[in-house]
Amino acid sequence: MMTLKLNGQTLNIDQVAEVARGGAEAEFSPEACDRVEASAALVQKLVDEGVAIYGVTTGIGEFSRIRLSPEQGLELQRRIIYSHAAGTGDPFAIEYV
Predict the structure, then answer these.
(1) CA 16 → CA 5, 33, 56, 95, distances in Å?
(2) DSSP state of 58
(3) pLDDT tens for residues 3-40?
(4) What's the DSSP call for residue 8?
(5) Residues 74, 56: contact at Cβ < 8 Å?
(6) How far apart are CA 47 and CA 65, in angstroms?
(7) Rounded to a whole number, what is the largest CA-CA distance in the chain?
(8) Catalytic option among 54, 64, 67, 78
């Protein structure tokens, strides 16, 4: 079975199809993991410094001018994930999701 190394630079539609339809596995390359960790560290630094970050330390949409406490920011992130994981109707085929 093929394993696709996601590096953030070379993904193409044929590789996406191979994972979605051909059963290939995907995993992050070590370099991609390093970049994700660096991005997370930067966001955490900005949160700790009290910087306004849309949807992280502020509300979203018409509530974007409202500053959130760190606890409220964490709750917002959970709710965003939940809202994007919800749906109605019959489940889609695995290759679509």
Answers:
(1) 12, 19, 30, 10
(2) B
(3) 999 999 999 999 999 999 998 999 999 999 999 999 99
(4) S
(5) no
(6) 16
(7) 49
(8) 54
User: What confidence score (pLDDT) does residue 2 get?
Assistant: 84
Q: Please state the length of the chain.
A: 97
Q: Determine the Cα–Cα distance for residues 37 and 65; give it in Å rounded to an integer.
A: 28
First to last CA, the chain: 20
Q: Could you identify the residue written with the tokens 């995993």?
A: 27
pLDDT at 86: 81
Q: Is the pLDDT of residue 43 over 80?
A: yes
Is 54 known to be catalytic?
Answer: yes
* CA–CA dist 81, 74 (Å, integer): 11
